[in-house]
Amino acid sequence: MFKQSILAASAALAFAAPMAAPAAPASSETIVLAGGCFWGMEGTFEHVKGVTSVVSGYAGGSAGDATYDSVSTERTGHAEAIRLTFDPSKISLGQIMQVYFVVAHDSTQVNGQYPDTGPSYRSAVFPQSPAQKAFVAAYIKDLNSRAPLKGRVATRIESGAFYPAETYHQDFMRKNPTHPYIQRWDVPRIKKLKATYPALYRDW
Length: 204
Fold this sequence. Notes:
Elements: H1 2-13, E1 29-35, H2 38-46, E2 51-59, H3 68-71, E3 79-86, H4 93-104, E4 112-113, E5 116-117, E6 123-126, H5 130-144, E7 156-157, E8 162-164, H6 172-175, H7 180-196
Parallel strand pairs: 6-7
Antiparallel strand pairs: 1-3, 1-6, 2-3, 2-8, 4-5
Helix pairs in contact: 1-4, 2-4, 2-7
């Protein structure tokens, strides 16, 4: 089912044109993305050229309960997320969105990703500027208007602060490449990134 969804997303995104770059882009831009367990999201984007920093954390809730134990109760409103910083002169927000929707997660799954279920594993984008919000909204609308994803994209646009996760979660894939969860659910994403967007892929 996941494979079918990803193939459908790939087909639909072939028609989604990236936003035109601004005349004088900033040297650095940040966006917060949620799409299931942050281990895989972080590891995937660490392999993307032009991405300068990826931090795992929690978004959508309050500071007082931004801990793994609290978020895991599924009662805090947080989503596991990554704060991604990139150089827009090397990679566009449109390309970031393509990797996010085609490779990093299944945007048609509601409140869950792969074996993980619950609202903390939801698909959501936390824009960091009005321009980002407008772009992401238009991008999702475009995806939802096209077959075979027509009306099936569950990704939400949300607001709220980002709180870094505990140290042991940071760079988890890089530090634990043989972990069973990483091997089963996350390594295939890295392979798909390399196969689908070879010009964007980089090794560690």
